[in-house]
Each structure stands twice: as C-alpha cells, then as structure tokens.
Amino acid sequence: MDSKILRFAVILAGCGNKDGAEIHESVLTLLSIDRAGHQYQCFAPDVPQARVLNFLTNAEMKEERNVLLESARIARSKIKSLSDFKYDDFDILVLPGGSGVAYNLCTFATDGDKMKVLPQVEAAVRAMHASGRPIGALCISPVIIAHVFKKVQVTFGKDEKINAIFQPSGVKAVNTDARSIVIDEANKIVTTPCYMLDARISEVSEGIDKLIQQLIKMV
Amino acid sequence: MDSKILRFAVILAGCGNKDGAEIHESVLTLLSIDRAGHQYQCFAPDVPQARVLNFLTNAEMKEERNVLLESARIARSKIKSLSDFKYDDFDILVLPGGSGVAYNLCTFATDGDKMKVLPQVEAAVRAMHASGRPIGALCISPVIIAHVFKKVQVTFGKDEKINAIFQPSGVKAVNTDARSIVIDEANKIVTTPCYMLDARISEVSEGIDKLIQQLIKMV
Fold this sequence. Notes:
By secondary structure, chain A is α/β, with parallel strands linked by helices.
C-alpha cells in the first residue's frame, strides 16, 4: 500500500438503530475513513422503510419514511441512490449496522434463514467481491455477507442464535467483542460486532478503526 | 482534577443538521466524553420540530416530528425530556449544533436578534452557569450562550453576519477554524465552530475533543 487516496463506498439503511442505520456506527465509519486520509461516498436504496419506530416506546409509528432520505441525514445530504453505485468507482465497500440493515437492506429480521437481500445491495456486494475488492461489515450487516457468499468467516458478536442460522450453509461465525475484528483473508471480508453487544461508544469506535485499517491493508 | 468520573448533560435538538441536531457533532461529543472515561446523559425538549426538511431537495416536508423522539435516534433511546433536567446531577453541559438548535431550541433562524430561547433550555444554561459549571457549545449553539449571557467570548466560526448581530450586546466573537476552540475562562464557556465552516469530519472531531478536554479542566 502506497499513499494512494482510497475511495470507500458506504451503504446506509436509514437513520437510527431501531429502524435504520446505526447512527454511531455510521458516523464513526466516516470519521475513521476521513482520519486515515481517504474518501467516502454514502449510498442508500431509494425505497420505503420497512417500519418506523418510536424510539422511546418501541411502538411502530403510522408514518412512511424513505431509506435514502433518512440516510441523507447521517450523510449531511452528500449521498447517492444505491441504483447509481458503480463498483469500479470504489476500492472498498463498508456496510454499517443497525436494524435497518435487517429490515430495509434485507429481510433477515422477519424471514431469518429464508431472508432475501435487496437486489441493489446484493449486486453491489457481489461486484466488489468478484473484482477482489475488500468489504467491511459491521454489527448485523454480516448476515448479508453470510447469506450471499455462504463459505465465509464473519462475526455476529456472540449471538449463538444467528451463528446457528448460518452454520448449515458453511459460514464460520467467530465470537468476538466490540473492540475486535474478524478477518477472512481469502475473501477480503472484515467484520466487527459493534452494538451487537452491549458496548460503549469508545469500544465501537476502536473496533471500527481496526476494521477500516484492515480493509486499507487488503486493497 | 483528580480521576473523578464527571457527568455530562448533552442537549440535542432533533436528528439531522438541516432541521435537528447535527448528527456528526452529537455522536463525536458522546465519543469524546466516553473516551475520556466520563459519563453522559442526553436530553431534548419534548416539543414539535419547527420544520421537517427533505435532505435531498431542501424542501419542507408536510410531516410532524417531535424533537425528543428524533433526538432519541442519536442517543440510542437513552435520553430524557429536558423538563427532567436537574443541574445538580451534572458537572458539565454540552450543546452540539445543527439547524435544529436555531429552530427548535431557540428562534435564531427566524428571528435573528429578536430571538427567543426555549425556557427549558435557558433555565438549564442559566442554572449551570450560576453554579459555576462549565458549558460547551458547538457550531450554531453559541447563539444561545451569547443571547442569554451577553458579555461572553464565543466563536461563530467565521460568520461575520452573526458576529455583527451579537456585537451590540457585548459579545466578543472570535473567528477560528473547526480544529480550534475559543475559551472564555471567566465564564467557563468553551465553543468550537464545527460545521459552521466547510470542515472535514476529522477536523470537527479534533475541535470537539479539544472542547471536551478543556471543559474537563474547568470543573
């Protein structure tokens, strides 16, 4: 790795850990990329959110929100529709977590092992992987990686229930904590659990910094 | 300063820089406090947002959102209504920025020098100051400090228009960049411009880290 400025694509899933992208994980991802001297472009699918939650009562609200518009809040409006994503414009792909990943980017939250991945998301992930580009997945996002690629090594934190769902398809799930990453060298996939565990924001930040550094090394 | 764990109160103004709290500034404030080994409690007023914007078109949306509920997204639901704030439970108060400060916590965005501050916010700021507790204000939040206390030294980045609005009431506005802080020792007030300027997230992070460190020294 020389001092080339790398281009990161970051896919967001809304705005807020209970129905969208996990805000801390998303912001800390952007911070980590920028602090390392690299560039990022945020993307999100232009689709309705699967649900909108009241973050104090956890009740579903009778509201419609759009994943791209809500994600634009985290990206400070500097965001593109995922339908405009071209893998060739980027060196690295990162998927922060949050329930929005499991509701809006795929259907893991409702369908478990019968989950489907949003075609735009699957296409982005497959294109990056097929061209040998590294992918980072945070928190619950590794379910997408596990579902799409099967025989990969990832972490779901210490969630044995999720581990068990993906084991039959050849996924190797490694338990770890928020300050650590799990590396699949052969597939250039790096994962970290973040708030899959009851972590402090500084621990989440440490895990994300390690993930970004590892992805950079893999380019 | 010994190694006492300090209690920070953080007042949020929604979720998103154009109609609520600036998300990056809010998250980086929490990160900085936690990384320094201290504790935070987020607060927000339980009031309707003044407006809800489409973050891609900047058009106003025909939607109603609540400041406390939206702020809860940044706080991962660990938030209290500002009406429950008791100054005596905290050592330091921090106000992150975002347009929501100028629309929801006060009326600076619409009323300029005729602005009013939400009574709960003014009460919190006055109680902290009267009891000698340090206050940190980011981005546009110093307008509240300037309006309430008049003869203080703060920064509005390099916004000469805002500087001119507050100069007649005795406010000393010091121009600076996102990586720097402005300290009013006598009043225990620390400010940093963040995204008042066209800054990178890593620069904003640096300014916030300096602000939090300075506030800790002032306790």
